[in-house]
Amino acid sequence: MKLIFIGPQGSGKGTQAKMIAEKFGLCHISVGDLLRKAKGKIKEEIDKVMNAGKLVPDEFVEELLLKKVSGNGCAKGYILDGYPRNVKQLDFFEKNFDVDKVFEISISDDESVRRILGRRSCSKCGAIFNVNSFPKPKVDDVCDNCGGKLIKRKDDNEGALRKRLGIYHRETERILKMHDFVKIDGEQDIEKVFEDIVKVLG
Ligand SMILES: [Zn+2]
Asked: Which member of 153, 162, 163, 170 is catalytic?
């Protein structure tokens, strides 16, 4: 089973990808994780680019992806979480693999903004919470785990978010035109979203 999960920030696609991967014994591949966990020479190259504040070139991501999907852990299949992000990446992927299903976990821009602006992280232990969605801290500004102060990320402001959403829609619409996809209502409860995806996969 080879699946692609697409969705805007705050859609919960990462959470769903993890849950679905567990249920069906698939690997959950997030490009962010791949980049963070890269080793050896490619890791040095990636660090160099990222420290310079530049985007990681597609070739690096492609190399890491090819290695990962052909590894032992992915024998039963995989879920790509947050990749491809644009038509060029989809092209690369389809040339090398066949994709069984594309899921779009859809939420409105307003809901995306609401959820992202609700994100808080603990200044002491780094735990992540969300005052507008999940997991909600018992007290708005206090970490459930250690009592530390919860803080907002600087780049989580509405203007920047709307801009990122604009880019997301432009690229995603082009991807979804090239490929059949199943649209899932991501504004439902986590369990309901999960059920809807499972139903499609049979
Ligand atoms: Zn904490």
From this structure: 153
Q: How many whole angstroms separate alpha carbon 115 and alpha carbon 39?
A: 33
Between the CA of 142 and the centroid of ligand 1 the distance, in Å, is 8
The answer to whether residue 164 is catalytic is yes
- Six-digit token string for 138: 């018992």
Of the candidates 2, 101, 114, 164, the residue annotated as catalytic is 164
The question of whether 120 is a catalytic residue gets the answer no
Residues 57-105: tens digit of each pLDDT = 888 899 999 889 888 889 999 999 988 888 888 888 888 877 899 999 9
Instruction: Spell out the domains of the chain, with CATH numbers in brackets.
Output: 2-108+157-201 (3.40.50.300), 119-155 (no CATH)
Of the candidates 114, 119, 128, 127, the one whose C-alpha atom is nearest the C-alpha of residue 154 is 119
Question: Model confidence over 15-38: pLDDT tens digits?
Answer: 999 999 999 999 999 988 898 888
